[in-house]
């Protein structure tokens, strides 16, 4: 079994096995020592250690040469397989960490309409060879996938408050009361959320970050919303409102929906902060770190509704080829 310089360097992690394989191929201690660039005594000690470890001779000594025993031939097959697997694994890791590399990005489905495609487009303009693996889920699902290592970074809201996760706010978008055209409130320039206290609400499914935000806003306004329908996708919620089945509190759309009016809310807390999260202790590849840096500086530009009526970005918000994608909730 011939070894390239890179693989020989890697195999120094398991030197006894490498030396055994070299001796087995050459059937000569000194020849193996010369090939590996180590003293013959080092190779001899490695073979002796392995024979003690497996409990039987691996070679028959024939004059100045060596020949594998029956047990040694069986063991050699396993050793070669193991060394090849280690080498393949190292090559995979090397490719994963080399530029241009791959970024596994998780995000809320609502961010897949405009912000995420825009950020990916900007980054690929700078790094055309970078590949993205995209995963969509709700906030809880994203956090689980982040911890499992399935994704490197997540764009999510609300920001998790977890000891092992770093969450950095990158953008703020207003939440607005969405009503059907012709609704009694549709002609107003802005409304208090309490003005809709008696309405049926179309809400995000329980467990979603947006649902928690809206529940908290309603509680602060002094009422519990009467939930008529729940939906996992913001587009579905907007469709139900357009059909006259209730009102909703949602971030602004990237494209206006016919039959709907989005009313600014006067409550200063009527916004959601979108953050970039990663596992604090986990190593980030250079390309992932570069993408994160770009998101921190440019994410706010992707949220077209985050203008004056939202009060601007939070104080903590920095200045303003897809491999695969998985669907998820809204």
UniProtKB/TrEMBL annotation:
InterPro entries linked: LysR_HTH_N, LysR_subst-bd, WH-like_DNA-bd_sf, WH_DNA-bd_sf
Keyword flag Transcription: yes
One Pfam family cited in the UniProt record for this chain: HTH_1
Protein keywords: DNA-binding, Transcription, Transcription regulation
SUPFAM superfamilies: Periplasmic binding protein-like II, Winged helix' DNA-binding domain
Transmembrane segments: none
Every HTH lysR-type domain range: 16-69
Presence of keyword Transcription regulation: yes
Family: Belongs to the LysR transcriptional regulatory family.
Protein name in the entry: LysR family transcriptional regulator
Species this protein is from: Streptantibioticus silvisoli
């Amino acid at each position: 079994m011939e070894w390239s310089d890179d693989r020989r360097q890697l195999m120094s992690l398991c030197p006894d096995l490498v030396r055994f394989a070299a001796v087995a191929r050459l059937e000569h201690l000194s020849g193996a020592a010369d090939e590996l660039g180590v003293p013959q005594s080092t190779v001899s000690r490695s073979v002796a250690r392995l024979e003690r470890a497996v409990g039987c001779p691996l070679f028959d000594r024939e004059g100045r040469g060596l020949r594998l025993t029956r047990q040694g031939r069986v063991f050699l097959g396993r050793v070669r397989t193991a060394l090849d697997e280690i080498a393949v694994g190292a090559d995979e890791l090397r490719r994963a960490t080399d530029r241009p590399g791959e970024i596994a990005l998780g995000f809320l489905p609502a961010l897949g309409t405009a912000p995420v495609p825009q950020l990916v487009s900007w980054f690929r303009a700078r790094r055309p060879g970078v590949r993205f693996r995209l995963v969509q889920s709700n906030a809880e699902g994203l956090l689980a996938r982040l911890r499992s290592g399935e994704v490197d970074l997540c764009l999510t809201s609300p920001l998790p408050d977890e000891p092992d996760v770093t969450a950095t706010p990158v953008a703020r978008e207003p939440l607005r009361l969405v009503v059907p055209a012709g609704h009694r409130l549709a002609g107003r320039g802005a409304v208090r959320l309490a003005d809709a206290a008696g309405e049926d609400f179309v809400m995000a499914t329980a467990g979603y970050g947006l649902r928690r935000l809206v529940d908290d806003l309603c509680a602060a306004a002094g009422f519990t919303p009467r939930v008529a329908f729940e939906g996992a996708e913001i587009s579905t919620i907007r469709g139900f409102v357009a059909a006259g089945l209730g009102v909703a509190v949602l971030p602004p759309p990237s494209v206006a929906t016919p039959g709907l009016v989005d009313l600014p809310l006067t409550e200063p807390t009527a916004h959601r902060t979108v953050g970039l999260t990663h596992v604090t202790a986990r190593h980030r590849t250079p390309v992932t770190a570069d993408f994160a840096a770009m998101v921190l500086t440019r994410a706010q530009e992707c949220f077209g509704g985050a203008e004056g009526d939202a009060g601007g970005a939070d104080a903590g918000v920095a200045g303003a080829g897809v491999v695969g994608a998985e669907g998820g909730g809204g």
